[in-house]
Amino acid sequence: MSGTIIPYGKQYITEEDIQVVIDTLKSDYLTQGPKIAEFEQAFASYVGAKYAVALSNGTAALHLCTLALDVKEGDKVITTPITFAASANCVRYCGGDVVFGDIDPDTYLLDIHSVRSLLEASPKGTFKGIIPVDFAGRAVNLEEFKALADEFDLWIIEDACHAPGAYFVDSKGIKQYCGNGKNADLAIFSFHPVKHIASGEGGMITTNNEQLYNKLLQLRTHGIVKSENSYTNDIEFAGGIDSYPGWYMEMQSLGYNYRLTDFQAALGNSQLKRADKGLERRRSIARIYFNAFEGKHFIKSQSAVVEGHAYHLYVLEVENRLGLYNYLKEQKIFAQIHYIPCHLMPYYRQLGWKEGDRVHSEEYYKHCISLPMYPTLTEEEQQYVIERIINFYND
Q1: For every one of its 395 residues, what pLDDT tens digit does the chain have, with 9 covering 90 and above?
Q2: What is the enclosing helix (H) or strand (E) of 330?
Q3: Three-state DSSP state, 352
Q4: Is the dihedral of CA 219, 223, 224, 226 positive or negative?
Q5: Burial class (CB in 10 A: 0-12, 13-18, 19+), 318
Q6: Which residue, among 234, 260, 261, 258, has the nearest Cα to 248 in the 3D structure?
Q7: CA distance 221 to 255
Q8: Which residues lie closer than 8 Å to 35 by C-beta, 6 or more apart?
Q9: For the chain, what is the total number of helices (H) and then of strands (E)?
Q10: Helix or strand or coil: residue 368?
Q11: Lower CB density within 10 Å: C or N end of the chain?
Q12: How far apart are CA 208 and CA 219, in angstroms?
């Protein structure tokens, strides 16, 4: 393996992917063309939702979700500290206040008991919503969170950026796929290169709520509408006689330019067609890691037998994390850390958060390390990673 660089994540681009992008570049549309709708319809079908809205990235998706749900100054929203900062920042974009729960130390997901404690400690109505995160690809049990949300009149945004194709099994024994719209009001996905489906950058919102769907479509494109049934100015003002002229449009709200391009959508749709194959490979890699590290006293390994896990990441908790990280880097194995707890980022410290506020999240951060995990990781490369880790602790 001398000289081979092994990153923690990596995109997989095929000749078919390249060709669909070339074909789109040669077409009449680079943006706002037919590839967007094709991708949206295919993705909605994949996760089992009624509607999907393609966007420029996952952060834009989170932002539009909070806008569509009318988050405003002073609104309190609960999320997890173990996530990428955007899961929390989207609330701040709207002037809302982020309240961090803690994680379950075994699943690394937002602990529902922590959330209930926060809700019960304040008058009903204090909190507006919850943003659970399907961290590392493990699906949050949204059936349980939906019951809690209904009890306290809250909405749910599911951050499923790590988890297309993942699912949990509900109380009736039914697989509930991430983003299917049955338990969360809105769900978001990311198509960053290290994710399951890559389009360079890109994001998607899924929902079963038609009203929210229409609102998202408007917010995605500057708040502009192009429908006669929605216009508020009269025909005469618009420049027509018996009907609105073809050029007419109205900006009815303050929206954004969060559109995805057609060639990105074409790439995303091509990747989506083999998403299940990639998911199967990720699960196979996870099983190999788990079997290799099972019983090692210096490692706490994720379980590889969690049904429905999508394995965007494979996380270990280890002793001497810094030593291992630097050693692997010397071997050209580039592990990563997911994540520095959000509540201890300087921005959130300035808002009053401090060490000791979320003990499980903070303890997890001291030990976590993400290993290489992507479909094109070879068996030889994975065995090399495993051997280097074991050798580090045995030396």
Answers
A1: 767 999 999 999 999 999 999 999 999 999 999 999 999 999 999 999 999 999 999 999 999 999 999 999 999 999 999 999 999 999 999 999 999 999 999 999 999 999 999 999 999 999 999 999 999 999 999 999 999 999 999 999 999 999 999 999 999 999 999 999 999 999 999 999 999 999 999 999 999 999 999 999 999 999 999 999 999 999 999 999 999 999 999 999 999 999 999 999 999 999 999 999 999 999 999 999 999 999 898 898 876 678 999 999 999 999 999 999 999 999 999 999 999 999 999 999 999 999 999 999 999 999 999 999 999 999 999 999 999 999 999 97
A2: helix 321-330
A3: coil
A4: positive
A5: buried
A6: 234
A7: 6
A8: 24, 29, 262, 263, 265, 266, 269
A9: 14, 16
A10: strand
A11: C
A12: 17
| 282 and 205 co-located in one domain | no
Looking at the fold, whether 314 and 209 belong to one and the same domain comes out as: no
Question: Is 10 domain-assigned?
Answer: no
Do the domain assignments include residue 173?
A: yes
Q: Give the CA diameter of the chain.
A: 85
- Give the CATH number, domain containing residue 235: 3.40.640.10
- Which of 239, 272, 305 is the endpoint of a domain? 272
Closest Cα to residue 107, out of 174, 62, 166? 166
Q: How many domains does the chain have?
A: 2
Instruction: Report the residue count for the chain.
Output: 395
Q: Angle, nearest 10°, between helix axes 379-394 and 321-330? A: 130
Q: Which three-class secondary structure state does DSSP give residue 25? A: helix
Cα dist from 220 to 68, 186, 199, 258, 327, whole Å = 11, 15, 18, 5, 45
User: Is residue 167 located within the same domain as residue 204?
Assistant: yes
Residue 218 burial (10 A CB sphere; 0-12, 13-18, 19+): buried
First to last CA, the chain: 20
9 falls within a domain: no
Q: In what order do the strands lie in the sheet with 314-318?
A: 299-301, 314-318, 368-371
| Contact present, 78 and 91 (Cβ < 8 Å) | no
CB 95 within 8 A of CB 44: no
* Cα gap 224→24, rounded to integer Å: 26
